[in-house]
Specification:
Largest sheet: 5 strands, mixed
Pfam families: HNH_5 (PF14279)
Shape: elongated
Oligomer: single chain
Number of strands: 7
Structural class: alpha/beta
Mean pLDDT: 83
Strand content: 15-25%
Organism: Streptacidiphilus cavernicola
InterPro entries: HNH_5, HNH_nuc, NA-targeting_endonuclease
Keywords: Endonuclease, Hydrolase, Nuclease
Protein name: HNH endonuclease
Radius of gyration: 20 Å
Order of helices and strands: EEHEEHEEHHHHHE
């Protein structure tokens, strides 16, 4: 089932919910639909356009948010799905300073790598191989990473995420292409 971006009353991105949950928020008048997904949800007597982006009608105070959780999906989003060593398609996670040599499983030590580079590097330091990275790994910051890290993507979300993350970061959610036309799927509620 497609996912929907949820914005606070101040247009701050809060999270991602299922389409069904977003529709319930809209029907209960707890949220307003800002963008339609092109999908229609049917009941016994009516058909409603399902939202792609909703904004809550009341401001929700968000408690302190800690650092962005280190997940495989968020890591691949940060590195653009590319190997940081050769630029190929990343399929694995690599520790820059190997864990066997005291490296930690933290944002500034973990990168996306292709299988070949990960195998060649094994448990050695980059200096041992003479390799260099294009940019050092760093923890992502900004509210947009709460959404980017989920791995759910929709080009209609981009204008709502750009104020909360760099253009490069938000491009992982929706590349610089015009939004595609959503098929008029018929989903039963």
């Amino acid at each position: 089932m497609p996912y929907v971006l949820v914005l606070n009353a101040s247009y701050e991105p809060l999270g991602v919910v299922t389409m069904r949950r977003a529709l319930v928020l809209v029907l209960d008048k707890k949220a307003v639909s800002l963008e339609d997904s092109g999908v229609y949800m049917h009941s016994a007597t009516s058909a409603l356009a399902a939202p792609s982006v909703v904004r809550l009608t009341r401001f929700v105070r968000v408690p302190f948010r800690g650092p962005v959780p280190l997940t495989r999906r968020a890591l691949f989003a940060r590195d653009g799905g590319r190997c940081v060593y050769c630029g190929g398609v990343a399929t694995s996670v690599d520790h820059v300073v190997p864990r066997s040599r005291g490296g930690q499983h933290q944002w500034d030590n973990v990168v996306a790598a292709c299988r070949r580079c990960n195998h060649v590097k094994a448990d050695r330091h980059l200096a041992d191989l003479g390799w260099r990275m294009k940019r050092p790994p760093a923890p992502p910051s900004g509210l947009a990473w709460r959404i980017i890290g989920t791995g759910h993507r929709d080009p209609r979300w981009r204008p709502y995420l750009e104020p909360y993350g760099s253009r490069e970061e938000v491009s992982h959610v929706a590349p610089d292409v015009p939004p595609r036309e959503a098929p008029a799927e018929q989903l039963s509620a």
